[in-house]
Amino acid sequence: MLIREATEADLAGIMLIERSCFLNDAWSEEVMLSELRAPHTFYVVALAGDEIVGYAGLSKLGQSKQADIQTIATALSSRGKGIGRAMMQVLTSKAADLGAEEIFLEVRADNKVAQKLYEVFGFRKIGVRKKYYQPDNIDAFVMQTTLLRKDPLVLGIESSCDETGIGIVRGNQLLANVISSSMDKHAIFGGVVPEVAARAHLEALNPVLNEALEKANVSLDEIDAIAVTNGPGLAGALMVGIGAAKALSVATGKPIYAVNHLVGHVAADILANGKVETPTIALLVSGGHTSLLLVRDLLSDVTLLGETIDDAAGEAFDKVARVLGLSYPGGPEIDKAAMGGNPNAIRFPRGLTLPKDMLAHRYDFSFSGLKTAVARHVELAEINKEQINLADVAASFREAVVDVLVAKALAACQEFGINRLLLGGGVVANARLREVATSRCQEAGIDLRIPPFSLCTDNGAMIAVLGAQLISSGALPSGLDFSAESTLDVRIVQS
Amino acid sequence: MKILSIDTSSGTSVAVLSDSEVLAEINNPDSMSHAESIGLAIRDCLTKADLKPVGIDRVVIGVGPGPFTGLRVGIAAAKFFATGAKAELVGICSLDAIAYDYYSQGNTGKLLVETDARRKEHFWAVYSGLDSGVPIRVAGPSVAKPEEINRSDLQLTSITVSAAALGKIAFHQGLKASGDVSPIYLREPDVSLSKGKKVTC
Known about the structure:
The complex is a heterodimer of chains A (about 500) and B (about 200). Chain A is about 40% helix and about 25% strand. Chain A has about 500 residues and is an alpha/beta fold. Chain A folds into 2 domains: about 1-145, Aminopeptidase (3-Layer(aba) Sandwich); about 150-495, ATPase, nucleotide binding domain (Nucleotidyltransferase, domain 5, 2-Layer Sandwich), CATH 3.30.420.40. Chain A has a 7-stranded mixed sheet, with helices on both faces. A 5-stranded mixed sheet of chain A has the order 10-9-8-11-12, sandwiched between helices. Chain A has a 5-stranded mixed sheet with strand order 15-14-13-16-17, sandwiched between helices. The model of chain A has no long low-confidence stretch (mean pLDDT about 95). Chain B is α/β, with parallel strands linked by helices and about 200 residues long. Chain B has one domain (about 1-175): ATPase, nucleotide binding domain (Nucleotidyltransferase, domain 5, 2-Layer Sandwich). Chain B is about 25% helix and about 30% strand. Chain B is built from 4 helices and 9 strands. In chain B, the strands form 2 sheets. A 5-stranded mixed sheet of chain B has the order 3-2-1-4-5, sandwiched between helices. In chain B, a hairpin with a 2-residue loop joins strand 7 and strand 8. The termini of chain B are far apart. In chain B, about 50% of the residues are buried. Chains A and B meet through helix 6, helix 7 and helix 12 of A and helix 1 and helix 2 of B.
């Protein structure tokens, strides 16, 4: 489906739908044409192939701070596909761009389906126009919504893995970023156990919320909107945050925005830097993700260039730590063990860097072969009754991970002609990764951004600031029916 | 007192009560869509009851036992609804609702309540009747293999828990705030330490 600005040439297609949707009160062709032509209106059509399957129009006069939704309709055969919602989204973004602070619309009193949809988008009934729709003699409800353009106060909830995070931002400004991690509870298992993580989220909800509100020195009444991660991540863990966020939204009447966790990691840089400079390549490395993104625009143009096809980088650190008899989480332990070690002592494999792999997996990562290579090295030493040099093994393993991460990120910068690289995710805590990225970016003339660690690891503030960005762009709330999406596509910034 | 009652130990069940009178209820038996339906169910139930969130004094929540993932959605929602609406939480064992419905229909005698605990196990509890509107639980809640459960008592296997019944039980108990609530899991997380496998042959 494509949505574009309507032209006079679309008139016939529009009228076809107009007449089939509004039986007794369809606009005439003349009225519709003058609407399309008027300088103060903005009409869009939704297309499936070449066919017009929906249209919607906005009116915004000169310097007025108010805009009106003039009409919206979807062809009967194309309903239930989110076309109306998508067109509404385009219109409200346009209204925001044109400087509107409020949007109004009229809806038939007997059209409960439409009213519910508008409510989901944050519209509220503010009045009635008696017998507005003729000849049916039906009242119109007037509905209104306020666009939160300037520096909205947003509360963000994150629960996609093992950190319960609640952050509060005002526009680009960080007010609170409280994180409760269940890392210690996973330690004996050597990795994140989804059920253990989900249980910990439920326990942490209220203490984390209270602390965040206290730190930000705001009350729930003052919050303008709620943002929550709905994926990607562990389904059972996501659902705790989603259940809590939806109920908080209903209880407080604040609109809710379901946002993408990975894009949230990119948005974290706003809190450190005031904005995300685009275009940029972003490398997100954590215990759950290893993703290379091309970000041309934070809200509308994020592409996944590649990701891990097996273990995440952080997971590889955890697993290799176990092989080496070190504890969880593996990253810091391996860092410690690697001190004084020779990173070039053992040439461990660099996953997916051979020419044949580069054809199909240019920007993908693989760490399971590396993990096996370390395990084999250790086992062979055992069989031969030799001592391994722990510092050398740890340093060489770490070097292999870091090398391939940075090399692929820089290759992406080069291929797309982008001289910016942004790092995110918990593995950024790894000093060697930061070191190698810094020196190689310097050599290549690439501007490297690494937000502070508290914003790199999973947190609620990045979710809040992404919500704030969406709001400032005129995005409508998500409604209440979104689900947890464990494999959410990075192109879907808001669900 | 105005009560919002929530249970997600089976499907998604939400009710709004004024004392023991049910003003509205929404029951979605689907046991796989708690996260999707919880927000709308609460909102629509309040709308049906013509109440605003701030009008709610108590949030009654079924604390299980029940399949964990769904159960947590309701409890998470109850916690943050209570915080947002400045109401107090009251936790009630979800199985009590089934016993309440059974006895309030005039039935008497001992009752074994069983629900699916997945992994070929059942959650169960035994009741003897109502005491001033509150089910008297004489055994359980527990989890066991179906063949290990003593079936000498009349048995009632239920797949749905009614939030309306939970709300009534809470009312008959005096709506005493529980402070924080925790789920009745009855089972440790299903995880074992892996030994690590050899990679050389």
